Amino acid sequence: MQAEPDNDQPTILIVDDERVNRSMLAELLGQQYRVLLAKDGPSALTIAARESHRLLLVLLDVSMPGMNGYEVLTQLRKQEATAGIAIIFITGQSDAAAEEYGLRLGAADYVSKPIRPAVVSVRVRNQIDLALQRQALQRLAQVDGLTNLANRRHFDDMLQRSQRLCLRRHDPLGLALIDIDHFKLYNDHYGHVQGDEALKQVAGTLARHARRPYDLAARFGGEEFALILPGHADAVAVVERFRQEVQKMAIAHAASTTAPELTVSCGVLTIHCGQTDGLEDCLRRADELLYEAKTSGRNRVCA
Ligand code: GH3
Ligand code: MG
Ligand code: MG
Ligand code: MG
């Protein structure tokens, strides 16, 4: 993941065509949140796309020249990255039909002008709390509890997204399947608790090899891991370095017939853009390469 220069206050985007409204809201919310401002729909969409990874809430004026708030909401919902951002409409219309329309479009809440600061603060706080809870739940649903890596479900999801990304960018997509060697013997010899510790250590090393923003290290299941490396021309080299580092951790494995320490076998497939094979086929081929690594002596990378 990339380093974030700013603090981690929740980010709010205020969109209003009138400067006085923007400054009033910015002053009201600026103490507790990181506040961004936009004076029209198109710039709101640009900022939201750029900040989608940390933007939790948009305070959105309904009537603006050019693109109105309803259109902005509709556009935000169309893009995967911005679809989940909470929206509070702000409007001068004290019109029940307009309010109903906004809520039906999927706004989380509605406040009317003239703005009552205390009410806006509370409504914003409520929506931010909900958004943070949603984020925490989403994270729980994506992460493997033992290793903290992406779980299988998230891996499947990200593999599909990575394939789309690589198609768009005309990039190759590296896919690795990794399996710990003689891990049943490790458990038998050292016990399941120490087995879990070894899994965590291997996972930590794997995570350090998923360096770029779109790389993903996952627990594929049991003592198997996976690595997605979008846009890497040298996926094999990355995985080979990982394999060597696992061996260098020197986790003793007295029962292994491969080496005195814990080792891994890896299959690496490079999917070329334009190749339209289904991902199931790709996974099957990566698994065949892993099997080749196992049958040709373990503790190696086959590509
Ligand atoms: P190979 O080198 O052919 O991969 O042999 P292996 O023994 O590693 O493969 P096998 O599939 O026979 O055994 C996998 C072992 O991984 C068996 C299972 O108990 C262990 N395992 C799977 N998940 C966990 C876990 O969460 N914790 C621990 N401690 N062990 C696990
Ligand atoms: Mg306006
Ligand atoms: Mg296995
Ligand atoms: Mg194994």
Automatic annotation (TrEMBL):
The protein's name: diguanylate cyclase
EC identifiers of the protein: 2.7.7.65
Keywords: Nucleotidyltransferase, Phosphoprotein, Transferase
Domain of life: Bacteria
Lineage of origin: Bacteria, Pseudomonadati, Pseudomonadota, Betaproteobacteria, Burkholderiales
Gene Ontology molecular function: diguanylate cyclase activity
Cited SMART domains: GGDEF, REC
Modified residues (4-aspartylphosphate): D61
Residue ranges annotated for the GGDEF domain, each copy included: 171-303
Catalysed conversion reaction: 2 GTP = 3',3'-c-di-GMP + 2 diphosphate
Protein source organism: Comamonas squillarum
Pfam (any one): Response_reg
Response regulatory domain residues: 11-128
